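ok, trying the design again with the full structure, not the truncated one.
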């Protein structure tokens, strides 16, 4: 009986991440298609519309927006919807959190030395953290709280979307060669995931 239960659990551990990933991707692709399909069916004759054309159109739209956002004259326009959402109570928190999460996972706004090991005082224990701010940045609320030799370091918690932001002297940190997204994945899984 023990072998039976262990085999089921091992099978679930193999299948569930695959199934959940495929379902999330399928849901995302279906949303892309559903969002653009009405526009395409209005703009194109029925015989020209093929399933999947909505996904290609959405990806093309993303490319055009991403490419044109590099230019100051157009970039402000693409940031306008986000600025409006940040002014609406309720959506401000949701949009802001999602925007910050995407920025963290993409590595945006991070320097090369943004993942550090933080040594706890009077201990040999070190925690993996991500440097979010450094002292001396002009017109930044968090940076204004820091002395020139201090860092704000986010310490994520395993199996939880949460953590602590601590302010430590640079001397208590040691840089490690890892991207912020890799560090988050490592810490959030408690280090139990694969090393890929």
């Amino acid at each position: 009986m023990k072998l039976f239960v262990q085999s089921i659990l091992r099978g679930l551990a193999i299948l569930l991440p695959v199934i959940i990933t495929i379902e999330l991707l399928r849901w995302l692709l279906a949303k892309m298609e559903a969002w653009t399909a009405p526009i395409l069916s209005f703009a194109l004759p029925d015989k020209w519309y093929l399933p999947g054309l909505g996904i290609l159109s959405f990806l093309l739209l993303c490319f055009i927006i991403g490419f044109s956002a590099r230019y100051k004259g157009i970039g402000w326009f693409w940031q306008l919807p986000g600025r409006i959402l940040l002014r609406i109570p309720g959506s401000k928190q949701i949009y802001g959190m999602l925007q910050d999460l995407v920025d963290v996972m993409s590595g945006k706004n991070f320097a090369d030395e943004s993942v550090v090991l933080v040594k706890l005082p009077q201990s040999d224990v070190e925690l993996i953290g991500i440097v979010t701010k450094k002292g001396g940045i002009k017109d930044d609320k968090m940076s204004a709280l820091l002395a020139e030799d201090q860092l704000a370091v986010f310490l994520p918690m395993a199996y939880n979307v949460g953590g602590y932001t601590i302010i430590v002297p640079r001397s208590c940190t040691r840089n490690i060669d890892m991207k912020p997204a890799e560090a988050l994945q490592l810490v959030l899984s408690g280090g139990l995931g694969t090393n890929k």
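Keeping the full-length input from now on. Residues 70 and 183 are 28 Å apart (CA to CA).
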